[in-house]
Specification:
4-stranded mixed β-sheet; 3-stranded antiparallel β-sheet; about 50% helix; elongated
């Protein structure tokens, strides 16, 4: 249990605070809020004493709303019957919880359940639900004691809120159901006993207050968005590392470019990329300086230190006879074809990162806005207005539809569609890195493979492709498919709990795709940096005649052509020799260094399963982002 204490007042709970409670922080109840809670509970008790008909208090629920409660059970009227002493009002609330706790499937994670409890406490603190102060204090005590009710995952239709999962929360308060305590699963009554807590007996409307609401979909939505906000930064980092590995072009990320189409997420993504790539001397490198990979041979290098490299490098020289009509171009660019084509733009998966990542950022931001409204909203039914001046109780206890989860469901549908988009562009970058037809002069599958026995990163892309396909197949919105419930009294439901549950699970899988890109991009970055720096080092220690061994020239027609060739090779050699060592952006380098503390460069095929798992953990734990503050500057 964390030492942090979050004070709940029904008005000011933030997403960050909810995440803190989900991860172990305790809660405290605001005294002023409890005054309003007591006022509403006292009001309901007075209305019952006056025998006023109130939905869910003195009537049944849903399609049973036309049934008024009597003064005592009908069976008490049988000849010779002994009065049961049961209060039908209390029995109504008790039965509501125990009959509605019918979810199935694996239990929700502890952080989700803790978040659900926190949300429910916070919304009930608004003082419009009729719950008693003691009941809220019991909920807070259960949460703070580390009791985690067992809430199976499947069963909510998202209106009237998350009825069934919230009933699984509440049933433990009654001494029923099951709960986890320090990871041990046990009966709810035993969990309460271990914490020194007593089971509750519910009063007027308390069952409805406890299980009407959007707490499951809201809890999962908030946790998913928190995860996605980190994954968006991780996606930008992965893209930046890949861009450096491609020696990509930065013009597409310029501030004045994005001022012309200022979608907030797009502007933010472009700014983040600029920060991550700040200081890079690989990005925007002149095309002709970038050699392409050639397979290593025993005769590839001239000195022993260079022989330790796992690659050879090379260029093609553009003969004089092939420059007709292109003289102006070759006045500006040296006539060598290496790893980079002479073109002013990169492929969409690199150039359009701000537009794609930014659109996903905007989808997540919209969801965050909806979630923040919901966190401090009243979501049960009916709503109690004890201080409202009214002639009839129906004006003070109003049946409405705040339990309906459609605002959250549609927000989650938007995010659900966005997740495969982010995963897909990541996989496309990964694929581009390993494909020799598209990786701008890097080796096929990022491995030397001089003996023809190695697969390198080939199957890493398969795994990413499989996850992207799975994410895409799960992206259909559940919010568009309502199935009526409660004998058609609840004839349109949101299915928001399913939507939020899917989004939370999909976010975790998105992280795996990004981890695979980072794992692959780190290998590609090593190769690109080392290949260019190997060319630079060679240029510094040999003359033009020796450097020309790395340049394919074809058959030269005469001595004049040979002289022109050597002169132009010397120009290339001189430019490389004069350069400082080439390196990625400062933030990219920091992240790359973290990866290399856990995963070494792949110089020969080896088992990759442990390395893939390590890459996934780096993303899950936030280790890479911790090395790079949100500004993109290494810490």
């Amino acid at each position: 249990m964390g030492n942090n204490v979050i004070r709940l007042d029904g008005l000011s709970l933030t997403r960050a605070q909810l995440v803190a409670v989900a991860r172990g922080a305790s809660v405290a109840l605001d005294e002023r809020a409890l005054t309003a809670v007591a006022r509403a509970a006292d009001f309901l008790a007075e209305q019952v004493r006056r025998e006023e008909p109130i939905y869910g208090v003195s009537t049944g629920f849903g399609s049973n709303a036309d049934k008024l409660l009597g003064a005592h059970p009908l069976r008490d009227e049988l000849p010779g019957a002994t009065p049961s002493g049961r209060s039908l009002h209390e029995e109504l609330q008790h039965n509501l919880i125990i009959t509605h706790a019918v979810n199935v499937g694996e239990p929700l994670a502890a952080d989700v359940v803790r978040a659900m409890l926190c949300i429910r406490i916070n919304t009930l603190l608004r003082g419009h639900s009729g719950i008693r102060v003691g009941t809220l204090q019991a909920m807070a005590a259960m949460l703070n004691a580390g009791i985690v009710p067992v809430v199976p995952a499947l069963g909510s239709v998202g209106a009237s809120g998350d009825l069934s999962p919230l009933s699984h929360l509440a049933i433990v308060l009654l001494g029923g159901g099951e709960a986890f305590v320090e990871g041990e699963r046990m009966p709810g009554a035993e969990a309460l006993r271990r914490a020194g807590l007593e089971p509750l007996q519910l009063s007027y409307k308390e069952g409805l207050a406890l299980n009407n609401g959007t707490a499951q979909m809201l809890a999962m939505g908030v946790l998913a968005v928190a995860q996605l906000e980190d994954l968006l930064d991780t996606a930008d980092l992965a893209a930046a590392m890949t861009i450096d590995a491609f020696a990509g072009r930065l013009g597409a990320f310029a501030e004045d470019v994005h001022a012309l189409r200022p979608h907030p997420g797009q502007v933010a993504a472009a700014a983040h990329l600029r920060a991550l790539l700040e200081g890079s001397t690989l990005a925007d490198i002149p095309y002709h300086l970038v050699p392409r990979f050639r397979q290593w041979l025993p005769t590839s290098w001239d000195v022993a230190a260079a022989q330790a490299l796992n690659f050879d490098i090379g260029w093609d020289w553009v003969p004089l006879g092939q420059r007709h009509g292109r003289e102006k171009f070759y006045d500006r660019f040296r006539p060598f074809r290496g790893g980079k084509k002479h073109q002013p733009q990169d492929s969409y998966s690199l150039r359009c990162v701000p537009q794609v990542h930014g659109a996903v950022r905007d989808a997540v931001a919209q969801a965050a806005r909806v979630l923040e409204v919901e966190l401090n909203s009243v979501t049960d039914n009916p709503l109690v207005f004890p201080d409202k001046v009214a002639e009839h109780v129906e004006e003070q206890v109003i049946s409405a539809g705040h339990f309906h989860g459609m605002p959250l469901a549609l927000a989650m549908s938007y995010v659900k569609a966005a997740i495969p988009v982010l995963a897909s562009i990541s996989e496309r970058r990964l694929n581009k890195l390993v494909d020799p037809a598209t990786n701008d002069g890097l080796p096929a599958f990022l491995i030397g493979n001089e003996d023809g026995t190695e697969s390198g990163f080939m199957i890493v892309q398969y795994t990413a492709a499989a996850i992207v396909n799975d994410l895409a197949s799960r992206a259909m919105p559940t919010s568009v498919y309502s199935i009526p419930t409660s004998a058609n009294a609840e004839d349109h439901v949101s299915m928001g709990a399913n939507e939020a549950r899917h989004v939370l699970a999909m976010a975790a899988d998105l992280g795996k795709v990004l981890a695979l890109e980072l794992y692959t991009a780190a290998q590609a970055l090593d190769l690109r940096r080392d290949m260019i720096n190997a060319a630079r080092d060679l240029a510094r220690r040999v003359d033009a005649e020796m450097f020309a061994a790395k340049v394919q020239s074809g058959a030269l027609a005469d001595v004049a052509a040979q002289a022109a060739f050597i002169a132009e090779v010397d120009g290339l050699r001189g430019e490389l020799a004069a350069a400082e060592a080439f390196h990625p952006g400062k933030a990219v380098a920091a992240a790359h260094a973290v990866i290399r503390t856990r995963i070494p460069f792949l110089d020969r095929d080896r088992a990759l399963d442990g390395e893939v798992a390590a890459a996934v953990r780096l993303v899950e734990e936030g280790t890479l982002l911790a090395a790079i503050p949100r500004s993109g500057v290494p810490g």
